[in-house]
Specification:
Its main location: other. This protein folds into two domains: 154 residues, Serine Threonine Protein Phosphatase 5, Tetratricopeptide repeat, CATH 1.25.40; 130 residues, Glutaredoxin (3-Layer(aba) Sandwich). 57% of the residues lie in helices and 10% in strands. α2 runs antiparallel to α3, α3 packs parallel to α5 and α5 runs parallel beside α7. It is globular and about 70 Å long.
């Protein structure tokens, strides 16, 4: 019996030795691990609520589900749960979170008039004092989605409604005025900017007439900018020959940080450092925070703001093709 077992083991080892080596699985990142666990959590919470619609801890379950959905922008796939909660618990304690889901699901589907109406309902239900921070954060999220889709009027109404809801908040009033000022630049000529790039050469936006120009305000310390960089590089590689120029304006404290970063990442387009450019580009464009981008058409008119992610490719593909 022992000899048979030894023979079987010997044969198994021999066969295994002849098998091709299996490639090692790529290691997950921390973000991927968290994402996978959060998706599992949301799925299990959703199933629990369907099985136990009257559970005593249903508000706790909905709160956890909605918070994770908002954190990851999983709006469309959780819209049904949010609509169900609003129907069953119209005055429930996590009503505002459910409303966020319904507003943003419509915004992501580009149903902006409907989304705006839902947004105004949400604002109306908030109290004056303890919900200001929540309202400001969510309003910025919704307005950002509207701006990326080219719905500038919707974004303007968001900030107008927010300022009207909290008239005693100096911070919200200032934020609304700043954003409305930026929105008003769309459809207007871009500033006649003349600045010195990192190599000391003069850059004039007027000299780029006849091309689409993306003015990108960024910094090496701004994580969203770094995440977006590969998309900018892809866009430049794809559309530069067809008429796209990029002018990046760094808000870093030191010029050296920008020079080193640009050299290490081999970024080919025009680079300005706002502090040493000889002109305040931030003030010229009315920038209040970064990331911020301004797309200028061949006639020198600002036509879009804050194009990032898939929105950048979508818009450029249509505009460059139309020009051709």
């Amino acid at each position: 019996m022992e000899s048979r077992s030894l023979l079987a083991l010997t044969l198994f080892v021999a066969v295994a030795a002849d098998l091709p080596a299996q490639p090692a699985a790529a290691p997950e990142s921390v973000a991927e691990i968290q994402n996978r666990h959060d998706r599992s959590l949301v799925r299990e919470l959703g199933e629990y609520l369907i099985r136990n619609p009257k559970a005593e801890d249903r508000d706790q379950a909905y709160a956890a589900l909605f918070n994770k959905a908002i954190e990851h922008d999983w709006f469309a796939e959780n819209q049904e749960a949010a609509e169900r909660y609003l129907k069953d618990e119209p005055e429930g304690p996590v009503r505002s979170l459910a409303q966020v889901i319904t507003v943003m699901a419509r915004a992501k589907a580009k149903r902006f008039p409907d989304a705006l109406a839902r947004y105004k309902e949400l604002l109306q239900g908030l109290t004056m004092a303890d919900q200001e921070e929540f309202a400001a954060s969510f309003s910025e999220t919704f307005a950002t989605a509207a701006v990326a889709a080219g719905e500038i009027d919707v974004a303007a109404q968001v900030y107008q409604s927010l300022a009207a809801k909290f008239p005693d908040s100096a911070a919200l009033k200032q934020k609304a005025e700043t954003e409305l000022g930026r929105f008003a630049r769309v459809g207007k000529p871009a500033p006649a900017l003349e600045a010195q790039d990192l190599e000391g050469k003069t850059v004039r936006l007027g000299d780029l007439r006849g091309k689409f120009v993306l003015v990108d305000f960024w910094a090496t310390w701004c994580t969203p900018n770094i995440v977006e960089l590969p998309r900018l590089q892809d866009a430049y590689k794809k559309y530069h020959g067809a008429g796209l120029e990029i002018v990046s304006v760094s808000l870093d404290d030191t010029r050296t940080a920008v020079v080193d970063f640009v050299k290490a990442r081999k970024i080919p387009w025009v680079q300005l450092h706002n502090t040493t450019a000889g002109v305040d580009c931030v003030e010229a464009f009315g920038v209040s925070s970064i990331p911020a981008t301004y797309l200028i058409d061949p006639q020198g008119t600002i036509i879009r703001l804050d194009l990032r992610g898939g929105a950048l490719e979508e818009v450029l593909s249509k505009l460059i093709k139309a020009k051709g």
